[in-house]
Amino acid sequence: xxxxxxxxxxxxxxxxxxxxxxxxxxxxxxxxxxxxxxxxxxxxxxxxxxxxxxxxxxxxxxxxxxxxxxxxxxxxxxxxxxxxxxxxxxxxxxxxxxxxxxxxxxxxxxxxxxxxxxxxxxxxxxxxxxxxxxxxxxxxxxxxxxxxxxxxxxxxxxxxxxxxxxxxxxxxxxxxxxxxxxxxxxxxxxxxxxxxxxxxxxxxxxxxxxxxxxxxxxxxxxxxxxxxxxxxxxxxxxxxxxxxxxxxxxxxxxxxxxxxxxxxxxxxxxxxxxxxxxxxxxxxxxxxxxxxxxxxxxxxxxxxxxxxxxxxxxxxxxxxxxxxxxxxxxxxxxxxxxxxxxxxxxxxxxxxxxxxxxxxxxxxxxxxxxxxxxxxxxxxxxxxxxxxxxxxxxxxxxxxxxxxxxxxxxxxxxxxxxxxxxxxxxxxxxxxxxxxxxxxxxxxxxxxxxxxxxxxxxxxxxxxxxxxxxxxxxxxxxxxxxxxxxxxxxxxxxxxxxxxxxxxxxxxxxxxxxxxxxxxxxxxxxxxxxxxxxxxxxxxxxxxxxxxxxxxxxxxxxxxxxxxxxx
Length: 567
Fold this sequence. Notes:
Low-confidence stretches: none
Radius of gyration: 27 Å
Oligomer: single chain
Largest sheet: 6 strands, parallel
CATH topology of the largest domain: Na+/H+ antiporter like fold
Distance between the termini: 62 Å
CATH architecture of the largest domain: Up-down Bundle
Strand content: under 5%
CATH class of the largest domain: Mainly Alpha
Order of helices and strands: HHHHHHHHHHHHHHHHEHEHEHEHEHEHH
Number of helices: 23
Number of strands: 6
Helix content: 55-70%
Structural class: mainly alpha
């Protein structure tokens, strides 16, 4: 009958988690919140719907392993790209400073020093899942602040290797914490060396042999064995299962098999990860939260303010415009889902008391809910602060850059704001016909690329009025805004038209929802990338069915005009 009880508990956990996820989705919140709420509802502290937590916890541990394994596979150090300095050094600085502030919060709230230190580490991490979701919905994945946020999240994820190795030693009750920390660091270093050897020499050969069988079942079994086996070996070495799974994922991340690995492991990960988040929710004591609501709210406010100020300050120190820094700070105020993994380690080792654990999870729930709101408030907040005379000098973006590669004032030129793939294509065609082009971008690598190609270029935020004022817009023929950020594009249009109300402005729309907004601001031509893909495929399809090029082009132009009127 024990087997029947296990099946009933797991079935009930999944059904309630499904309902919680659907409700969260309907409320436009992350599904994780629904799963955690399901766990609270099924908590053993409740007299109804209470499950045997050990039954759920057994498979939830497998969810942790698969969750960390897939995270390791998804990591791409090459993705740091043009924001590597602020991501690597700024991300590390942000983690250390936030841990220090978080430890102070814990001590003020009366936590024991080990628990306070653990608490500081928990709030230092943000949620890659939530950041990606918010940026995707806003069409800002490729914006500068989007790249900065994802780069910092990537470094935070990598820091799990260090935190999972060091936290138990530093926050534990060892007689010599420094010696214990040194031992844990040595073990982690040996594991990383072994990971590098396996990832470059052994694993690719094994996966090649298995893939050559063309058996998907064997490939999936091999991947799961690699994840579970590495986790078990690392656990025997005295470190956590989660750390072993993470390292196993890193082993595969840079191989040619990483994409198929993710495709095969994601369904398993998602299923067991749901049980993990349910099991976390089951550990929350509702009575504690209701009895300490003031403490929970005060903690949430402190976390949001500290993380916002720390991230904003770090990004600004690394030379990015204030607007980019503020958006990055607003988007990283939440506590990440992998903080739950660290929290579970702290609870299992007796370092993190149950009340601190419940407080951390409650704060995580509220900060996740607040993230979309904080992103929406970033721009109005900037405008409000700039309107306060005493604060305006403190919020200055700094002096605009100097226009390089051009003698005197440009005239009759096209200004390209944003020198990414789209900007490079537009400027390339114009310069090939010897039309004058000026490029502006606040990515120093993009500016350097434009300079190497002999283009007049300016380093600065193309949405900033003072930067645009350096481009002689009154005598420009065209302003092409290629920024993948709707708000930045809107500001660039408004500020450019303040300088030259008759300027011909064309802009790339980051998404369909931005079309009407950018038209209303004053753009003469708004290009919808999704629509253009559909129209080009339509033209090609007509051509393949024998329709002449002229007639197909006429059909495409008519559809384009109709959709422009509808938007």
